[in-house]
Amino acid sequence: MELKHSAETHSSHASGSSAARFPIPENVFAQTVTEVRHFTDRLFKFRITRPAEFRFRSGEFIMIGLRNAEKPVYRAYSIASPFWDEEIEFYSIKVPGGPLTEHLQKIVPGDTVLMRKKPTGTLVLDALVPGKRLYMLSTGTGVAPFASLIRDPETYDKFEEIVVVQTCRDVAELTYITEMVDQLREDPLIGELVGDRLRLHTTTTREPFARMGRITDLLSSGRFFEQTGLPPIDPEVDRGMICGSMDMLKDTKAVLEAFGLVEGANNAPATFVVERAFVG
Ligand code: A2P
Whose CA, among 8, 26, 34, 81, lies 20 to 30 Å from 270? Predict the structure, then answer.
C-alpha cells in the first residue's frame, strides 16, 4: 500500500522523525545514501553505505525500500556495483506515480534507504556453462546488473570477450554505461584485465544516433554482426545474459533460442540466463 507521505518527509534529514515511528525489521539493513546522480529526467543512480556483513554475487538483485511507512514498498533492484566495492550502487528509473520511485528519486546524501538482507538472482556467472564470449543484452536500466559484472575480475577469468549491449530510447540514456566503460578501461586496478576484451554496443530507438534499432531486431536481422564484425551467435562458444522489461526478456530470449542457446538457472547452468527478478 502506498502511504500519503510528502516527498519532503523522506527526502530530508527530518526522516529521523519517521524513523522513530517505524522500527527497522530484523531482515532489513538501514543504510545511508552517499551519492546521487541524475542522468536524465527519467534515470538516476545512487550509492549507499554497505554493511560489513553484506555479501552478494555480481549480477544479483536485492529488495529496497524507504523508511517512510510501517510497511514500506519494496522493489527488486539489481546491484550495479561489484562485490569488492565498499559501497553499493543502484541505477534506477523514475516511474511517474510509482509507489517507490516517486519518492526514491528525491533522495539526497544523508537519507536512509532500506535494503533487505538476502540478495538473489539468475544473472550470475555460476548459472552459465563455460564459453568464450559473454553477451550482456539490456534495455534501459536493465544494464544495471551488467555494470556489476563488468567490474568483477571473475567475469574476465571465465570469458575471453564480454560484449555489453544496451538499447535505449535516446542518447542521454546511454551515459551511465558509456562513462563506466570508458573509466573502466583506465582503472588502475581492473583496467589492464579489461583491456580490449570488453566491448560496448549501444543503440537508440527514438533519437538519431550512429547505431539505431532494438537489439532484438539488430541480432535477428544480422545487422549487429555486420556493425561489430563479430561472428553470428554460436552455442558452442557464446553465452548470454538478458535484462530489461518483461517484453524485452521474452523477445530477446526467443532470439537467443533461435541461435540455439538454452536457458539456464543456478541449479541447472546452460548457455544463457534471463533476469527473473519480477517473476514468481
Ligand atoms: P522502443 O523505443 O522501440 O520502444 P523503455 O525506456 O520503454 O523501457 O525502453 C527502453 C528501450 O527498450 C527502448 O529503446 C525500447 O525501444 C526498447 N524496447 C522496448 N521493448 C522492447 C522489446 N520487446 N525488445 C527489445 N527492445 C525493446
Answer: 81
